[in-house]
Amino acid sequence: MAGLSRGRLPQGPPRLSGTKPPLRGTSLSLTLYWGEDSFSLRKAEEALIEKIIDPQWRSFNLVLLYEATPESIAQTVLTPSFAPGSRVVVVRDYPGLSSKGEDEAPLMALLERGIPDETHLLFSGPSKIDGRTALAKALKEMGKFREFSRTKFPNFEEIADWVESEVTKRGGRVEREAAEAIALAVGADQGVATQEIEKLLTYSNTLTLSEVEALGCGGGGDVFMLAGAIANRDPARAVVLLRRLLLSSKGLVILAMLGTTIRNWLMVKLLSNTQKNPFAIAQSLGLKSDFRVKKDLEVCRRWKTDQLKAAVRLVLEADLALKQTSQSEQFVLEKLIIKLVCL
To answer: Is it the case that residue 215 has pLDDT exceeding 80?
Structure first.
């Protein structure tokens, strides 16, 4: 081809005015991201990629590795890029970080030798790492690392408060009942909640309860859905939801939120004996609206006061079992569910 030197790649389209030159790495261009908040982790991962890679060469200089072996990681990192600028190698959910598995010698040798200047190596995930492994220790010592933990919401009101805050940050407005409807649908999963908020704001900048209900708000299986299955005395669905929750949450966290929900049912039940107005009940409980109370009243019609008191006692017994016995979380919580639906 005329005009091209042998062995050299074309330099691509001219750089747009204002585009930053690609950054170059160092011999230890290494980052480790892990944690349960996969949504925030992926956002940070994308931000790092955009910072390092020239967007004109992203398809060439971004390599994603799944189910990688120590050998494949080392070979990929040491393989020269076919395009100009810096490159990023992302290793997702590498099992060697959470448990001792294959011989990590090729990977450890790579870290000792040093990563090529033009390459940045990012280990992304898993949700937990075993800090005792040689690889985890080396990565923490040699690179930048960050854990993405899920925000812990003690109660339903705080989830709704967070929804209001996130909508405001995005320049929108949300009625309190609409915020509570979103919180009820998605629970404490910030990633799902953020996606739902962004989806809803594309339709309207001011979110009302009717709009949220009309547009729909999906959840991926949360403590509130688990509580709903228990309230409906549906043990099969409750057990399925519990097992899904245990994949990403600790048993004590699940039990704490479930216990709070059941205690709220009992409080609403007791107050409804003397107060018939849902808003008056909400005020007595210090709530900002009666949306949640109306939902709880629907549950209370199917449960007697003595049954709810017994449910609170069963939650306390399960709490002691988790803290003081060697029984598995799944066994204790499934046993609790069966007892609750049989009240």
So the answer is: no
Question: Could you please report the per-residue DSSP string of 125-144?
Answer: --S---TTSHHHHHHHHHSE
- Is residue 155 classed exposed, middle or buried when 0-12, 13-18 and 19+ CB atoms within 10 A define those classes? middle
DSSP one-letter code for 85: S
Question: pLDDT of 25-75, one tens digit each?
Answer: 333 588 888 887 777 888 888 899 999 999 888 888 999 998 888 889 999
The answer to whether the predicted template modeling score (pTM) of the entire model surpasses 0.70 is no
Q: Which of 66, 54, 3 is nearest to 24 (CA)?
A: 54
List all residues 6 or more positions away from 224 whose beta carbon is below 8 Å from its beta carbon. 156, 184, 187, 261
- Single-letter code of the amino acid located at 93: D
Grade residue 265 by pLDDT with cuts at 50, 70 and 90.
very high
State the Cα–Cα distance between residues 14 and 204, nearest whole angstrom. Answer: 39
| Residue 216: band (very low, low, confident or very high) from pLDDT cuts 50, 70, 90 | low
* DSSP code at position 103: -
Q: Are 247 and 241 in contact (CB under 8 A)?
A: no
Q: What is the pLDDT of residue 312?
A: 94
Domain annotation for the chain: domains and CATH numbers: 30-147 (3.40.50.300), 156-215 (1.10.8.60), 223-341 (1.20.272.10)
Alpha carbon 278 to chain centroid, angstroms: 33
Give the burial class of 341: count Cβ atoms within 10 A of its Cβ; 0-12 exposed, 13-18 middle, 19 or more buried. middle
CA distance 281 to 301: 15
Cα 165 to chain center, whole Å? 18
Measure CA 313 to chain center.
31
Return d(Cα 174, Cα 163) in angstroms, integer: 9
Q: What is the rounded distance in angstroms from the CA atom of residue 24 to the CA atom of residue 311? A: 60
